[in-house]
Design goal:
Chain lengths: 81, 598
């Protein structure tokens, strides 16, 4: 088995990051994932927004279910009388 | 000469190739049935009888979520074990043995399903992926599933044997991360498949063979979901593994944290199984309290998912910054978006984030009532297994194919077009499915169009939703065609000596930072078993107590004319007695109220 580390292989190698792609080496202590924090924070805000939006989509447009359903049965019963 | 997987493990590469090709064959079949049912449901093109729709639906479900996903999984897991432990399988005949068992099993199941299209035999299995009793399949269907699952059990044994042999030679070393992921996932799978094994071997197969008269449908359903929820993690874990061990490398960086990845897989081992009842929120016969426990366990599963979101994004960011990326969001531009392997996995991850939200809706007991059994659920799992898993698998295929065939990928541009097309197609289809579900459009229905009734859309119309679903389905089919073109084109290529090395991502924070206890597989398995006992003992006992082990008298489907007559007679009797009771109640109520109100 030979090595895929010689120059010509590296340049044509589509899946490995090549030396020309990598402009610097960032170690454990220098790396501060603020970008990940920003993206995940954004995702969290979207989730919170959707959670509130859910109330309008799923409950406001529909008839009462479960708990309020009991109330309608009771009032319905009185109406029957 | 290169140092690709096929150069290191030529014999194992053959097994993995066989598993991948089996997986792609299932994907092709499943895809064909997918477009047929998309066009049928939406009413654009109906060339099959609506009664056959359910055979199509069963084939689409079983071929995609059982054979496509699991064959791909065994391929990836074999790669992960051999590569990370740096040793071949212990006994190649055993490896081919479990592959053969899986292949024979799924062939029997597939034949039973496809035989439903012809009247030449009385074999059929149009019972959908969930095979709920009283829907009954031919014994071949159940037998095939059993062989397939037993095949996966032996595959697990194979991987454990490799690990034990490796451990004997390396007693003080930490389990390499990919091997750790394989072992924890398989432990979860062993626990989970006990449910479906019990459902089939004790009840459904004997019932289908005529050895027992009837089954308790709630019991077999509950046992199915004992397996049915963890199976979604069985699909997902290979995709997660790819996001942890391959994506950081493709991004040009390293995995952010090996310990966090281990924690995630341990959490999935512990929490995957005791959650299955959340698929049964609307089943009568299971007390609300048990459903509440399942919901609580389910919500805990958000933890490993969100840990994954952070770790994977941070690893991509590390790659992007090493490639010169700057700023809070500007680093995203430095990622290798033109690489189909990266683009496919990143888009799959993005879709999975959206699926996270619809999953939270499904998981909440009260909100679930509004979307249960609607098209929403179909939209949800086309984002999870249909994109997060399937698109990741297709994207990593572009990395794996050269590794296991020793041939250059046929076309990287076609590959890039393929993954983007899948993303766009699924955006149309899944979004419209979710919205359709909110209008109350049911799932598992050949013709969801009804005389004298219209689903009312607050925004848009049902016709517009149908158009989006059909368009999405067509784009997905095109994407599949491109995928297969690439697979076939690559297979026809000549052997190349110029392939990337077989390797996976390094770590910023390695296993030396992970507490030793994380590698204690016995401990985590014990905790998982205890949680399963807590979550399932009482619901199962209560179901058996109410409905009997083999159920009350059960009418088999499809009904004969005679049965139908007796049922309508029964229904009439029930209706009359109900009316009589209501009248008496109303009279009593009137009398009482008249007495109370002066």
């Amino acid at each position: 088995m030979s090595h895929a580390t010689d120059e010509s292989t590296q340049i044509q190698d589509p899946d490995q990051p090549t030396d020309s792609d990598q402009v610097r080496e960032i170690g454990h202590d220098e790396f501060d994932p603020v970008g990940a924090l920003a993206l995940i924070g954004l995702y969290f805000l979207i989730l919170v927004f959707l959670w509130f939006f859910m109330y309008f989509v799923e409950f406001l447009g529909n008839d009462p279910t479960v708990v309020s359903g009991i109330v309608s049965v009771v009032t319905g019963g009185v109406g029957l009388a | 000469m290169s140092n690709a997987y096929i150069d290191q493990f030529p014999a194992e590469a053959k097994v993995i190739r066989a598993a991948f090709y089996s997986s792609f064959f299932a994907l092709a079949l499943g895809g064909v049935f997918g477009i047929i049912q998309t066009l049928h449901r939406t009413g654009y093109y109906r060339f099959i009888d609506s009664a056959d729709y359910y055979t199509v639906l069963t084939a689409h479900g079983v071929f995609l979520v059982i054979s496509f996903t699991i064959f791909f999984l065994v391929g990836i897991f074999t790669w992960a074990i051999t590569t990370s432990l740096d040793r071949g399988v212990e006994d190649l005949r055993f490896t081919w043995g479990w592959y053969g068992l899986m292949a024979v099993g799924i062939t029997l199941t597939g034949v039973a399903i496809l035989a439903g299209f012809t009247d030449a035999t009385d074999i059929s299995a149009s019972v959908l992926f969930t095979f709920y009793a009283p829907l009954q399949a031919h014994p071949l269907f159940y037998l095939g599933l059993v062989l397939f699952v037993v095949g996966t059990w032996f595959a697990g044994v194979d991987w454990f044997r490799s690990w034990w042999a490796w451990k004997a030679e390396n007693p003080d070393e930490r389990i390499p991360l990919p091997a750790f992921m394989v072992l924890t996932t398989m432990l979860m799978w062993y626990i989970a498949t006990l449910g479906v094994a019990a459902a089939i071997l004790l009840f459904l197969l004997p019932w289908s063979l005529g050895l027992i008269e009837s089954v308790n449908p709630l019991l077999t359903r509950t046992l199915f979901w004992f397996f049915g929820h963890p199976v979604v993690y069985f699909w997902l874990m290979p995709a997660y593994m790819m996001w942890y061990v391959l994506l950081p490398k493709i991004s040009g960086g390293k995995l952010f944290s090996d310990p966090l990845a281990r924690v995630v897989f341990v959490l999935f081992l512990i929490l995957s199984v005791p959650t299955g009842i959340h698929h049964q929120y609307l089943d009568p016969g299971i007390a609300e309290g048990f459903k509440f426990i399942a919901m609580t366990n389910t919500m805990f599963l958000l933890l490993p998912s969100l840990l994954t979101a952070f770790t994977v994004v941070a690893s991509m960011e590390h790659g992007a910054r090493q490639r010169g990326g700057e700023g809070y969001l500007g680093w995203l531009k430095a990622l290798p978006w033109r690489d189909p392997v990266f683009a496919g996995m990143a888009l799959a991850g993005l879709m999975f984030a959206a699926a996270g939200f619809s999953g939270m809706i499904n998981a909440g007991m009260n909100i679930n009532y509004l979307v249960h059994n609607t098209f929403w659920v179909v939209g949800h799992f086309h984002l999870t297994v249909g994109t997060a898993v399937a698109l990741t698998f297709m994207a990593v295929t572009y990395w794996f194919l050269p590794q296991v065939t020793g041939k250059q990928l046929w076309s990287r541009s076609v590959a890039l077009g393929q993954v983007v097309l899948w993303f766009v197609g699924m955006t149309f289809m899944s979004n419209a499915m979710h919205r359709g579900g909110l209008l109350g459009i049911p799932r598992r229905t050949a013709e969801p169009q009804y005389d004298g009734f219209e689903f009312e859309a607050a925004v848009g119309s049902v016709a517009e939703l149908d158009a989006q679903i059909a368009l999405g389905g067509v784009l997905l089919t095109l994407s599949l065609v491109l995928f297969f073109a690439n697979v076939v084109g690559t297979a026809l290529n000549g052997r190349s000596d110029d392939l990337p090395d077989n390797s996976y991502a390094g770590t910023l924070s390695g296993p030396e930072d992970a507490p030793q206890i994380l590698d204690n597989l016995k401990l985590w398995t014990a905790i998982a078993v205890v949680l399963v006992i807590f979550a399932y003992t009482f619901p199962l006992l209560s179901i058996i107590d109410r409905g009997g082990l083999f159920g009350p008298e059960l009418v088999e489907l499809p009904l004969s004319t005679l049965d139908l007559e007796s049922i309508s007679a029964l229904a009439l009797a029930v209706e009359q007695s109900t009316i009589a009771t209501l009248e008496t109640t109303a009279d009593t109520a009137t009398a009482v109220i008249a007495g109370v109100i002066p």
